[in-house]
Design goal:
This protein is about 30% helix and about 20% strand. With about 700 residues, it is of the alpha+beta class. A seven-stranded antiparallel sheet has the order 5-4-12-11-13-15-14, covered by helices on one side. The chain has a five-stranded mixed sheet with strand order 17-23-22-19-20, with no helix packed on it.
């Protein structure tokens, strides 16, 4: 008759390392419920702990407690390590102990040894407890042996997720397997998809960044992570600056991400389905919302369905995205409740969220939702009616002065905040540290490498293939994003051209290299693990650059007041040579005596125009006679009317007089828009203006009735 230990070994081998686990991450998760289910399904009478205890040597101290199992492991190794190692029941028992770790029974949640003794019914002190404690060294070696066997098999029995940390390396192995239940594995594959992680984590998103994204993702509805996993997330997220090293879950997430093949964990389906995260795009210069899906590698064309039965044929298009979702207009319900598109080989999901961060797509030239805030770059933020007030306060706190607020087209109650950029490092850091329900929207990516951003680039054509991150104009050097610090003092050692120094800089805020006043030439900056080369120049042109115009102001200390044809020998303030046909920004001329001025769009948006002071360097170089009494104001995207007030009266003009005017569609909060229109109501006879006046009157009338 087969021993109980061998029965458990056979069952555990098939359950966790069978053929269906090939090339997928595998977790040896065994808690009381799983143990009971496996025993009942396979007719095993002896509990797992009893089966392991029967193989232990309790009598004396002349042999190791687990010498019988160790002997079997040596024989297994000598015969070529075929099949799963004989230590599986021992390892499963250690995971069983880890799943019971909680603050109860007089023990803390970090007390593994107490639960290890408890599994075998051994008192917390005494001879047997000492024997079990010493046996943990052998158990740790067995975990390392399992990890090595899985790695050497090349994924045939599954990809290893066995992890630990430096502080509690023996305990870390079983704890790493106790964090992720079967349901968590399924939820994590959804998370990897919606956060747009590449299969096998080919872009090397670090574990700390995965932890940051998972913490934000798991805060939403319907995420289905187990209580133990949620508890570990909260514990890890609250560990501050990781003074004692990365929490165990960081390395575990890294291993799970490296093993993820881009498919959902769906044990009940025979065919593995690829998974993608749906993205939101603002197109047509801010006038339209669309859904966007990145193309999955190897799936050029496919069909997916939404819950109402509609089908969409997706085809790979420009920018490595799918076309075919244009008819699925985003709605308030979809943003609030989520979207789930599925087909035979592809699943695309949008998880519900009240605040959406967008950044300019490098290929499409449209604003597209993204996973992290990039300091130094422009962003848009879309917020629901319930979150708009908090987002408004949050953006005000980071010191952004150019934010433009408007309604979101087609989504009642939602507000858009355009031009969001972190320009004040101190204010940005203080805002992040203050926290808040939606602060994750402003969180930059956690990096493990240095990165150069921004700067005034020149000669882009000479960058490719030269091993150079970029060429920059002197005085316009890029900013340096630092990796997260692993040292106890929070500093990062940075080397510039071979000279090292420790910086106590916040890794979320870029360090400005232009403050170092670098000399012309090549420079290398970074840490011991990652560095980048860039060059700095005063300029590449000894003569006039190509494209310089033939008109200008003759300059002899002070520029001449009149424009004329330039000569070749004298100093001139020259303009650029404009092509015959060019698309210029829409601008209007504003007199400097104007008291207030606004651009208005059809959706309730109001953008104020402020008088600009002449820069000191212009005053110094141009004579007083050259100063203009007017200025140009660039119309924002979507603006249709320009309304302004002089000391005498209000004035109105169309931004594009010959263009058709869209119908006004204000939302329920656009009082400023309505009052601006009514202030200038009778001052314009242009076609289309009366419709906006009527809309404003109806809006104010509705508000007054509500107030009554």
């Amino acid at each position: 008759m087969m021993r109980a230990y061998d029965q458990w070994h056979e069952v555990l081998s098939e359950e966790f390392f069978g053929a269906d686990h090939a090339l997928q991450s595998t977790v040896l998760y065994v808690d009381d419920e799983v143990e009971r289910e496996l025993a009942e399904r396979n007719g095993i009478d002896a509990p797992l702990a009893q089966a392991v205890a029967d193989e232990m040597y309790w009598e004396g101290s002349d042999r190791a407690l687990l010498w019988r199992v160790l002997s079997q492991c040596r024989t297994w190794t000598a015969k070529g390590r075929n099949g799963a190692p004989p230590s599986l029941p021992v390892l499963a028992a250690s995971v069983l102990a880890a799943t019971r770790m909680a603050t109860s029974d007089g023990m803390l949640r970090t007390n593994f040894r107490g639960r290890w003794y408890q599994v075998f019914g051994v008192p917390q002190e005494g001879h047997k407890a000492n024997r079990l404690n010493k046996a943990l060294d052998d158990v740790a070696a067995m975990w390392e042996e399992l990890d090595s066997w899985l790695e050497d098999a090349g994924g045939l029995y599954g990809a290893s997720t066995v992890s630990t940390d430096e502080l509690y390396w023996r305990v870390g192995y079983p704890v790493s397997q106790a964090l992720v239940r079967r349901s968590d594995r399924q939820a994590l594959t959804r998370f990897f998809a919606t956060t747009r992680l590449r299969p096998r984590n080919s872009t090397e998103v670090p574990g700390r960044e995965l932890l940051r994204r998972l913490t934000a993702w798991s805060a939403g509805r319907d995420r289905r992570l187990s209580p133990r996993m949620m508890e570990e997330l909260q514990f890890a997220s609250g560990s501050g600056n990781f003074e004692k090293g990365d929490p165990l879950i960081v390395s575990l997430l890294e291993r799970l991400a490296r093993a993820w093949d881009g498919t959902l964990h769906e044990p009940d389906r025979k065919q593995r389905r690829r998974a993608l995260g749906l993205r939101l795009a603002v197109t047509d210069r801010g006038r339209r919302l669309e859904w966007l899906a990145d193309a999955a590698e190897g799936i050029e064309e496919t069909t997916v369905q939404i819950h109402d039965g509609r089908s969409f044929t997706l085809r790979t298009d420009y920018g490595n995205v799918y076309s075919g979702l244009e008819s699925m207009q985003p709605s308030e319900a979809q943003l609030r409740l989520g979207v789930h598109l599925q087909g035979d080989d592809l699943v695309i999901e949008w998880v519900p969220q009240d605040v959406v961060l967008l950044r300019m797509h490098s290929d499409l030239g449209e604003w597209v939702s993204t996973e992290y805030f990039e300091p130094g770059e422009q962003h848009w933020v879309l917020a629901s009616s319930s979150a708009a007030g908090q987002v408004r306060s949050m953006l005000s706190a980071i010191g952004t002065q150019t934010v433009r607020e408007a309604s979101v087209p087609g989504i009642p109650g939602w507000r858009s905040f355009k031009g969001v950029r972190a320009v004040d490092g101190t204010a940005f850091t203080a805002t992040l540290d203050s926290g808040g329900e939606h602060i994750h929207v402003l969180q930059p990516q956690v990096r493990h490498r240095t990165k150069l951003i921004g700067g005034l680039r020149i000669a882009r054509e000479y960058r490719a293939g030269a091993g150079v991150a970029g060429h920059y104009l002197r005085g316009g050097e890029p900013d340096l994003l630092l990796p997260a610090s692993n040292s106890s003092d929070g500093t990062v050692e940075v080397a510039l051209d071979g000279q090292s120094s420790k910086l106590r800089a916040d890794p979320r805020v870029p360090f400005p290299l232009n403050c170092l006043q670098l000399e012309e030439g090549q420079h290398e900056v970074g840490t011991s693990s990652s560095s980048q080369v860039f060059t700095v120049h005063d300029g590449f042109h000894e003569r006039l650059p190509e494209g310089t115009g033939s008109l200008g102001y003759k300059c002899d200390g002070t520029a001449a007041p009149r424009v004329s044809d330039t000569g070749s020998a004298d100093a001139w303030v020259r303009g650029a040579a404009a092509p015959a046909h060019t698309a210029l920004p829409r601008t209007v001329i504003v007199k400097r005596e104007v008291l207030e001025a606004f651009f208005l769009d059809p959706f309730g948006g109001v953008v104020a125009v402020h008088s600009q002071q002449t820069p000191p360097w212009v005053v110094k170089r141009l004579p007083e006679a050259a100063a203009s009494r007017v200025l140009e104001a660039e119309a924002p995207d979507g603006a249709v009317w320009f309304v302004y007030r002089t000391p005498q009266r209000w004035w109105v003009r169309a931004v594009a007089p010959n263009a058709p005017l869209p119908a006004p569609e204000p939302s329920g909060e656009d009082y400023r828009w309505a009052y601006a229109i009514l202030s200038a109501g009778g001052k314009c006879s242009e076609a289309g203006w009366s419709a906006y006046v009527h809309a404003a009157e109806a809006f104010i009338g509705t508000r007054d009735r509500d107030a009554e």
